[in-house]
Amino acid sequence: MNTDSLKDILIRARHETAKVIIGQNDVIEKALIAIFTGSHALIEGVPGVAKTLLVRTLARVLGSEFARIQFTPDLMPADITGTNVFNLQRNEFALIKGPIFTSFLLADEINRAPAKTQSALLQAMQERMVTIDRETHLLPANFTVFATQNPIEFEGTYPLPEAQKDRFMLKISMKTPERAEELILAHRTMTKEAPETMLTNGAVQAVIKAEDLQEMRRQLGMVVMREELVAYLVDIVRATRQHESVLVGAGPRATQSLIMGSRASAALSGRDFVTPDDIKSMALPVLEHRLILRPEFEIEGLSVAEVIQQILQQIAVPR
What is the Cα 143 distance to its own chain's centre? Predict the structure, then answer.
């Protein structure tokens, strides 16, 4: 598989996904970046903006398995990882795998589960394996977590610890559609082209097989990134630790995520080299959920997005 075929597959993946997901082109691109870099994504949006539908559609388009976990306050770690159950006929314990044994996992409203259950995802996200009764089990090579959060409802929720948020390569914000896009959705809902129907009637085609994803990820390693751009990227991440309004800045994992995201962004644009614009476009989704502002600046109404924009303006762009 060469860079031309990679570009073709990415174009087809976006086209097939757009058959179901209306007016969320940037969201689709960010989700594809998370998948093709072998990373995980945090999706934030109010109910009804198609967060679940997005992941289901991507699983169909990329020929991969899909599973969904609805996180609740009483959800236990064994409910997601699975457990060993004694088989009376065979007189032995047998593993009953949980929903985490899949390729694309939608962790719906992850902040509703207590810390003990949230932490059960940590090993899976970082090492793609889970430990059940002291025995380690490998997860599929394409294991990707898409965790959703509702940004307006906090009653009965447990904030994600910083260590877990850092495991997510990027944060994807899904907004409500524009009026024209919502009109299209309204008209399609009354026909056979309703988004849910399109997904179930075979209108959405798989563009690759699950086993091809690994090869596509290797192809991203061929995207060139000049030394000056690497230094520019590192300076951006380091500046988050020194900004006067930031209490906790981005760590080294953010540097790695920004490199991978910039290369994937270049590939989505059909290029085999990274530009400063690729780095700038990925800075907000990669860094936003990793920064903690000082309370006095939050009270004044300063947002993390504004801080990142200030940093991008302060650091000289290499030519």
Answer: 11
